[in-house]
Amino acid sequence: MSTGYLAAETVGNPMANIAIFGLFVVVTLVVVIRASNKNATAAEFFTGGRAFSGPQNGIAIAGDYLSAASFLGIAGAIAVYGYDGFLYSIGFLVAWLVALLLVAELLRNTGKFTMADVLSFRLKQKPVRLAAATSTLTVSLFYLLAQMAGAGGLVALLMDVRSRTGQSIVIAVVGVLMIVYVLVGGMKGTTWVQIIKAVLLIAGAAVMTAMVLARFGLNLSDILGSAQSAIAASTDPVVAGRDVLAPGAQYGGSLTSKINFLSLAIALVLGTAGLPHVLMRFYTVPTAKEARRSVVWAIALIGAFYLFTLVLGYGAAAIVGPDRILAAAGGQNAAAPLLAFELGGVILLGVIAAVAFATILAVVAGLTITAAASFAHDVYASVLKSHTVSEAEQVRVSRITAVVLGLLGIGLGILANGQNIAFLVALAFAVAAAANLPTIVYSLYWRRFNTRGALWSMYGGLAATIVLIVFSPAVSGSPTAMIPGADFAWFPLANPGIVSIPLAFVLGIVGTLTAPDDEDPVLAAEMEVRSLTGIGAEPAVEH
Amino acid sequence: MSEEVRPPSPSGEQFLAAAASPEFQDLKRRLRRFVFPMTVFFLIWYAVYVLLSTFAIDFMATPVLGNYNLGMLIGLGQFISTFVITGLYVRFANRELDPRAAKIRGELERAAGAER
Questions:
Q1: Interchain contact, A534 vs B105, CB within 8 Å
Q2: What is the topology classification, in CATH, of domain A2-418?
Q3: Cβ separation of B38 and A247 shorter than 8 Å?
């Protein structure tokens, strides 16, 4: 891949980009250290003491959710493919309604630290916790890989680091910083990093959007028209032939490609409410009402952000032009940085570059604390030690897990450098939607649901997703595959959701109905009452 | 932390009784009667949008005003419907769910406190 960079354009001044990013690291480290507490209790370490307000947590959720893939990736896809990039972002937004209406409040009322707390509440503890922890770790690892791999491509573009070794060093630096954030700050520190990053990212996108709109006299229609003219003027006949104002430029074409997109759309809309690092955020607020407010803030911020990317994507096509974007190091991911350079020169580019990098750092920190909490609380304390360990011990184990995961993330991130980031993120969503969401919904709303149903649905959804991916054209049998030389693909779609998600829902029903209805009715009543009223999880009502 | 000052947890019998109480059944029915139809509605609306975008490209490309076409307007409609549903749910939950949940919680806490 290094040959592609020879003729590629370097953007701005790498030293300025590094300096602004360094400033972000220093500021966040100060905040994290101030938020730190060496003798944090488990509630403090895993949930920040449940002391965040709804708006604060909502901003942090937006920080967790708006990864570099959605910022650079969606703006870039809109710049090059137009409408289809927009279509992608709509799935990410609508998905939040599932979280708001069905999951957020009941989950917060029922659980303590992890997703498994809720899923295993009234079922057999050990097997269900183990299954939930397995899928939590799988989703988090795929997501972590996507972010780490993305860091490599980003530094090529923004810091002019093009050698494989140089990029590997940057990935290692990201991993080490992430470990420091999690170890020192716990959930409280990590949440503050998310809040700072989300404010910078959304403000940066808002400023750029205002500048693009100002250039076109606040007329969005003109931006659309100029984007289409710029695309039509491309020297690449394939690009020039695209209608970027209508769907189909990226996902249209053959029937297989259309069904593949439908499959992706299903995973996007159902995956969000099953992402463990998003679910864990609901435990950082004191009441269900604050959990609701946090989702409302998250929906408002994420929705506004995707509207900004619509303007930025078409603006990049109109102002920078498709040929320069595609020729830059990083390809379409370079659209937003190149636009920043056109609009505001070295300084604005430096800010946007630093924000994109900070985004990766913050998201990986959130993922790591989620995975570490799940391992310590679900696997170590519940499954291995049968609830005989203290909460202080759980915190100690999760700190060690965070270090191990960080090192693993660095190693795998270096190996995955250059892989398709959007594909890895889509994979994480597909696993979350298939392995987690059916069991979450059933255990909250279906009284008859039992242990066998949960295990079949979680393991079945997880296995089906992974198997279909391994035998898909994304892994082998196509020029863009992970292993381009081999061909063992028999499943035609790169996105498995259209098969694996309905399968997991059906397995939950079949597993439940084929097992006797012998789960504890008292626990079922307790879970139902807790989930709807918040008793035991909220400060007492004033008498 | 706040864990220690929390009221005693209700017993199993108290949870069973609370779950069977008409007040709780009413709360549960109200919640489900709102969230289930709303979920079905937005999922169908999203599915229609995605299907139109993949299989009715010419329809979506129909010009409406300036450079805006039907696809752009329906896409922005997804944003608007998401914001509106969010607003409706918050209003519903604040008015219909929160006071009822707090009442049941208060009674259950009193009962749990009285027993110990």
A1: yes
A2: Sodium/glucose cotransporter (1.20.1730)
A3: no
